[in-house]
Amino acid sequence: MAQYAVLIYSPAPADPMEITPDYLALLERYPAQVEELGGKIVTGFALQPSTTATAVRGDLVTDGPFIEAKEVVAGFFILEALDLDVALKIAKLNPATIDGGVEVRPLFVPPSE
């Protein structure tokens, strides 16, 4: 089955300790919805708030993410799905789409020699 990275975007600073009970209930329901569509979450991680990020560009090291933005990467997970259409259906059900968004990218598979 194809694998996709699903990047979760939430309003800055995307502090996981500030998740509301309603949002948490939606998150707890999500894995079952993924399975109903034939997908499988392989692994996933929530990130610390964007205020803990450190950006590195060449020799310059600065506090915070690369850019000032209303939304920041709050987490990611690896999804197995039949194809991109199914992956997008699964992504649309993610609660992050309510006030943020998600980005779906196929994982790179190096060409065989």
UniProtKB/TrEMBL annotation:
Domain of life: Bacteria
All residue ranges annotated as the YCII-related domain in the record: 58-108
A matching Pfam family: YCII
Family, as annotated: Belongs to the YciI family.
The protein's name in its UniProt record: YCII-related domain-containing protein
